[in-house]
Design brief:
Blueprint lengths: L1 H22 L7 H12 L6 H36 L11 H14 L4 H26 L4 H26 L5 H9 L8 H20 L1 H7 L3 H6 L4 H23 L5 H13 L3 H25 L7 H19 L1 H4 L1
Helix pairs in contact: 1-3, 1-13, 3-8, 3-11, 3-12, 3-13, 4-5, 4-6, 4-7, 4-11, 5-6, 5-11, 8-11, 12-13, 12-14
């Protein structure tokens, strides 16, 4: 009941954050106007041309994208922390963020359209983890988890070197600023059509994590214990890696590299619902979505120019993570 109540409150918090994101901006819209416009849209009617344009063509797609990206990164972080039995694991542990970043900056260098840049980033993110997994399988070590992590570090470093090479080759006046801003994370270019590009990949990736949340939780006990309880360790591990990689690649291809969400949000959710993965996953999804919606709202309203999301998540996440470490120092020790 505690977990159900907590998740219900987190869902209400997510709705409140999305409402706030629709209200705030250079053209503020009162809450009652937002609700009336949403109700009119659901009924197939128009409300006000000016409010409809600002709300449904600019803010609502961005709020939905922020919620999807935050939910994807938080779910991937919680899944990888459980799978690798390490609380310091983040969604880019297998190099997916670096791989997707390399594909996206390569698309910017080649002057491709935005949809092609996102598609190339998504494809290279998936390809990076596929290479990592194939490399780990080829080495055939007894410690599969350790080999996966080391292979991810190696391939991620190569992708990072590729990003640096592209930045050197890019036009310093046009392409390099776009590459730098994209690598810091931003949702400023999101349109309504982009939401439909992100949502299917995120939903398809989250669905197996939700359906297999109990076997995934058993993996935290160790491979031998999980096998003794009837869990197909290789299958579940492969599903977790594939699903978490899919949602992370989709998020990075749409918003750029945004750190700290996948690392910090599961730690914020554990004191509320406990360490069990079947309770931690929905809480992390809701909290991650609400957190990134609020951060994105702050990014576009705190200053005259938009602040990169990666910068804000680092400024907010680092003190919170230190506080969580200090609060749980007995458990960590």
């Amino acid at each position: 009941m505690r977990a159900i109540t907590t998740n219900g409150l987190l869902a209400l918090g997510l709705l409140a954050a999305m409402l706030l994101g629709c209200m705030l901006g250079p053209y503020p819209i009162p809450a009652d106007e937002v609700l009336r416009a949403l109700l009119a849209r659901l009924q197939g009617e128009g409300y006000s041309p000016q409010i409809d344009t600002v709300l449904f063509q600019i803010r609502w797609p961005r709020v939905l994208s922020a919620a999807l990206v935050g939910a994807a990164l938080a779910a991937a972080g919680a899944s990888f922390q459980t799978l690798f039995r390490n609380p310091l694991v983040s969604p880019d542990i297998l190099g997916v963020s670096a791989g997707a970043g390399f594909g996206a900056v390569l698309g910017i260098l080649l002057a491709l359209p935005v949809i092609a840049i996102q598609g190339l980033g998504f494809a290279t993110g998936l390809a990076t983890v596929a290479i990592v997994y194939a490399l780990a399988r080829a080495l055939r070590s007894q410690n599969e988890i350790l080999v996966l992590v080391l292979a991810g570090i190696v391939v991620g470093a190569l992708a990072g070197a590729g990003i640096s090479l592209v930045k050197i080759l890019a036009d310093p006046y046009n392409q390099l600023p776009a590459i730098t801003f994209w690598l810091l994370g931003s949702l400023s270019g999101i349109k309504a059509s982009d939401v439909w590009n992100i949502a299917p990949a995120v939903v398809v990736g989250l669905l197996p994590l939700i359906l297999l949340r109990w076997p995934i939780g058993v993996l935290s006990l160790g491979d031998d214990e999980a096998r003794s309880l009837g869990v197909n360790v290789a299958f579940v591990r492969g599903v977790v890696i594939a699903a978490a990689t899919l949602v992370t690649a989709a998020a990075v291809s749409a918003s750029g590299v945004i750190g700290w969400v996948g690392l910090m949000i599961p730690h914020m959710a554990r004191p509320l619902v406990g360490p069990r993965f079947d309770r931690l996953l929905p809480a992390s999804i809701l909290m991650g979505a609400a957190f990134l919606v609020l951060v994105d709202t702050l990014a576009r309203t705190a200053a005259r120019i938009e602040i990169p999301l990666g910068l804000l998540t680092a400024l907010i996440g680092a003190p919170i993570f230190v506080w969580l470490l200090a609060r749980g120092r007995r458990v960590w020790s």
